[in-house]
Amino acid sequence: MNKPATWTSFDVVNKLNWIIKKQSHQKVKVGHAGTLDPLATGLLVICTGAKTKEIQSLTGLDKRYTGSFFIGATTPCFDLEVEPDQFFETAHITEHHIREVARKMVGKQAQIPPQFSAKKVDGKRAYESARKGLVVEIKPKDIDIKSFDITAIEMPEVSFDLLVSTGTYIRAIARDLGVSLQSGAYLKSLVRTSIGPFELSQAYELDALVEEIKGLE
Predict the structure, then answer these.
(1) What is the DSSP letter of 33?
(2) For residue 119, which of 168, 178, 50 has the smallest C-alpha distance?
(3) Is 37 a catalytic residue?
(4) For residue 115, what are the domain limits?
(5) How far is CA 32 from CA 44, 51, 125, 152, 199, in A?
């Protein structure tokens, strides 16, 4: 399905869990194969019943995203969940520089997840500590940026198309892009367009999916 903006992935699961339980009068397992941040939209693969056993294999599939970065500022969470709090010079940045940095970021590497992330540190989600103003040590994770195409540059915004391995944080790519440009950057918009063979073009809108479930006998 196409996750709506401002909904968490768990909000969607809870909504569908409730409507399926109401419709079938049974308790049915519902899960998703890959978290999307609240401000992001796009493909969310939902599994129910026995199919929830396949979630782990689905989560491991490559993912494609489109969206935009804002160059010249940063936020504590590297997206717009929190307002920008630092600003940087951009006069030295050329289109060639941006494309060259993106090209060099392709490949296998160790990525440090954002402080505002669902990574568990000492049994707690990192974002729980971050929202209290605490900084926790998050270990780097091996990822693979398989392609990083710059599709448009209208400074201070840069549009992109990314194909990445599972576990890759696009917000962290924004952070690293800004550092490599000797400036700052954050993720302004994000749409997940595919997960392995699953395509956003084939996805339900939430309301349409709810109505279809209601129509099942």
Answers:
(1) S
(2) 168
(3) yes
(4) 63-194
(5) 7, 10, 18, 32, 15
The span from the CA of 67 to the CA of 65, in Å, is 7
**pLDDT for position 128:** 55
- Judge residue 106's burial from the number of C-beta atoms within 10 Å of its C-beta, 0-12 exposed, 13-18 middle, 19 or more buried: middle
As given in the structure block, the two tokens for residue 210 are 């709810």
Same domain, 183 and 78: yes
Read off the pLDDT of residues 7-63 as tens digits, 9 standing for 90 and up.
999 999 999 999 999 888 888 999 999 999 889 999 999 999 999 999 999 999 999
Q: Take residue 170 and report the two structure tokens written for it.
A: 């696009």
Q: How many domains does the chain contain in total?
A: 2
Calpha distance 41→2 (Å, rounded): 7
User: Is the Cβ–Cβ distance between 83 and 75 less than 8 Å?
Assistant: yes
Please report which helix (H) or strand (E) contains residue 56, including its range. Answer: helix 55-59
Percent of the chain with pLDDT over 70: 89
Low-confidence ranges of the chain (pLDDT < 50): 121, 126, 129
The closest of 139, 147, 148, 86 to 113, measured between CA atoms, is 139
Q: What is the pLDDT of residue 146?
A: 98
Residues 91 and 167 in one domain: yes
